[in-house]
Amino acid sequence: MSIHNAAAIVARLGPCRIALDLSAHGRLAQELALLGCELHTAPDERTVVGFVEWPRIGAAGTLVEAVAPYRGVDTLVLQSAGKSRDEVERALFAEGWSRHPGGMNHAEYAAWNGHALPPLSYYCRARAGSGEGLLGLGGVEGDAVIARYAQAANHVRLGDTVLVDGAYAADGARILEALSQAATVRKVADAHSGSEGEEKGAARVDPTLRTVADRSLDLVVAMQPAMPRGWEARLDDYMRVLKSDGRLVLVIRSAQQPGEALPADWPTLNAALSSRFLVESRYELTPLTQDPLGARMIAPVPLDQASNGPWFCVVVSANPLAGADQAAAFRHPAFEGVEMKTATLADFGNAYDNPWLYRSMVQMGERLGNEETLTRLAEYVIANARPGSADQGAALTVYGYRVLETRAGSAVGALIEAIRGYVAAVGADAPPHVGRWAISLSFLAGRLCELVGDRDEALNRYRTAAEANWQAFSPILATKAVGAAFYEARIHIANGHRDEARRALQQGVDTALHAAASSHREHMGDPARPLHFYLTELAEVIDMGSQCANALSKFHLLDSDPGLFWRQVDVRRFGLATWNGDVERENRQLRSALLQKCA
User: Residue 554, SS3?
Assistant: First the structure.
């Protein structure tokens, strides 16, 4: 377990200066050293982290005695072995330790229970004057609230400005700072905040939210917030302060008695949210055993499933269509400071008529999580956006991939005609983002034609994408050109047209090399602060090209064993995101089936 434990510690705390008993944990020390950690036999003024195993076979003494040498370090890692959790936590809290804000992520919640701690648990020095905060709350009660904040951290996007409102807002802000890439986390003062001084990035906000500017926040995390004017008025507050591509993670209790100023049930809450936002997803705290102190998980539940609570956890998004008249105010927080004069591919504010659509509808990993809602948004934009705009091209692409994913062959005919019209209208002087969508749509049209068995038209669409001018946008768009060349070759192979297949594969190799040899400075921005995704996607271009080269080098195998030839090519390199999405959809279906059986 030394390799696993070392990896877990570094994943949590990064390469660090760590003190541990080298005589007892020599293997762990070696693994930590290989991961960049500086090892100390005893804590000193330079030590940041202490590692303690308790109880340890052959070693006497209490937990308090075991951790006493580490009072001066910032963070304590405890390796425990099934001892009573209550006993351990009471001892640590009494010694001035509190739970580490990054000590539990959302995926790990199911490994926690009320009887014993997981093999590794993390603590930090409690802040003076912090009061009875969340991170000083042990047991399953504390786990449940921490897990909800950890789950909310999954919805924080790179560079977001976040507001935490409600129960344990101060420690909730610390959890979000530890588990997300938010640029700024602010908090609404609450009864559990204590009297700690204000810190950079976690400034308090007046509970009325009147001091928060309109459309200034990317995310609000609201955990049973104070609602002096009523819960629906609080939703109106959130709608006002969120940007047009912002999100709200809301945890709220249902009314438990007549007249209580809370939503009566899920339909009541859902109706109020739907009139203000786009409802994405809903979650419930689900026990995994009959044991009241046993493990739990936060599991997604269908939006149309009846439930009386008592707790509702909902994720909703602002409607980006409401920002159509606010295009000039758009700033993508992940690209603040990027040289937009050179980094054309991130200049969404100038490229789209309504740039607020980008994060909500287009950006993988950030856009609407509810596929049906995303599809309806794309359909609306297709019908109402300016013809030939980047907005319409993006919407066609999003909708088209939804058709492909669901194998909705009946929708392909009309969609192909719409794609043809869009691509045909794009001239040589088209804006870069419009040209980008034309190339992506040509590739997608090839996939859709294959879906309905129109292989000749698929070849035409792939050829269009393979020969398109991706250079006008960015070398990373060459993924579509290389992918199109490979898919074209695949059809030729099946048709027995070997020469055409060789030509297409060779073009894939040549395109990848051309993209790799491009002048990257003008596309990725300042090398000291490059676009974070640029080299990753450029590597994907090279990876695809390598599989085209691999296919060429193994081409002779087609004569003896076509199956053996095909097994040499890693086809997952072409459309890896789509492949991952297909796997995730199957996993969601399996999880849903398992939960239904357990219910």
Answer: coil
Cis peptide bond N-terminal to 55, omega within 30? yes
Query: Are residues 52 and 197 located together in one domain of the fold?
Result: no
State the CATH number of the domain containing residue 66: 3.40.50
Tell me whether residue 167 is exposed, middle or buried, using C-beta atoms within 10 angstroms of its C-beta: 0 to 12, 13 to 18, 19 or more: buried
Q: What is the DSSP letter of 335?
A: G
- Cα gap 4→11, rounded to integer Å: 10
Cβ atoms 353, 324 nearer than 8 A: yes
Rounded-to-integer distance, Cα 591 and Cα 203, Å: 39
Identity at 142, one-letter amino acid code: G
> 134-137: which pairs have CB atoms within 8 A and are 24 or more residues apart?
134/167, 134/168, 134/171, 134/172, 134/175, 134/192, 135/98, 135/99, 135/100, 135/101, 135/171, 135/174, 136/93, 136/98, 136/99, 137/99
Long-range contacts formed by 391-396: CB under 8 A, 24+ apart: 391/352, 391/353, 391/354, 391/357, 392/422, 393/422, 393/433, 393/434, 393/436, 393/437, 393/438, 393/440, 393/441, 394/352, 394/357, 394/358, 394/361, 394/362, 394/437, 395/357, 395/361, 396/422, 396/437, 396/441
Tens digits of per-residue pLDDT, 161-191? 999 999 999 999 999 999 999 999 999 976 5
Share of the chain above pLDDT 90, in %: 80
What residues are paired with 189 via a beta bridge? Answer: none
Q: Which two tokens stand for residue 592?
A: 């849903």
Q: How far apart are CA 147 and CA 111, in angstroms?
A: 11
Contacts of residue 285, defined as CB under 8 A and 6 or more positions apart, other chains included, come to: 144, 147, 296, 297, 298, 311, 313
Question: Rounded to 5 degrees, what are φ and ψ at 579?
Answer: -65, -45
| pLDDT of 131 over the 80 cut | no
> Does residue 363 lie in a domain region?
no
**What are the percentages of helix, strand and coil residues in the chain, rounded to 5?**
50, 15, 35
Q: How far is CA 501 from the centre of its chain?
A: 38
Q: How many angstroms separate the CA atoms of 354 and 368, rounded?
A: 16
Residue 370 falls inside a structural domain: no
Q: Evaluate the omega torsion of the peptide bond into residue 300 and state whether it is cis, within 30 degrees of 0.
A: no
Q: Is the residue at 42 inside a domain?
A: yes
At residue 197, the pLDDT reads 41
Residues 117 and 157 in one domain: no
DSSP string across 168-223: THHHHHHHHHHHS--SEEEEE--TT-TTPPP-TT--EE-TT-TTSPTT-EEEEEEE
Domain extent, residue 41, equals: 2-126
Mean pLDDT of the chain: 92
Strand, helix or coil for residue 433: helix
Tokens of 246: 């912002």
The enclosing H or E element of 144 equals helix 139-153
- Domain boundary, last residue among 286, 318, 350: 318
Q: Are residues 177 and 309 in the same domain?
A: yes
Half-sphere exposure of 431 (CA within 13 A, CB side): 16
- The rounded distance, in Å, linking the Cα atoms of 231 and 234 is 5
Report strand pairing: 120-125 vs 204-205: unpaired
Give the C-alpha separation, 94 to 138, whole Å.
12
The Cβ of residue 13 has, within 10 Å, a number of other Cβ atoms equal to 18
How confident is the model at residue 523, as a pLDDT?
A: 87
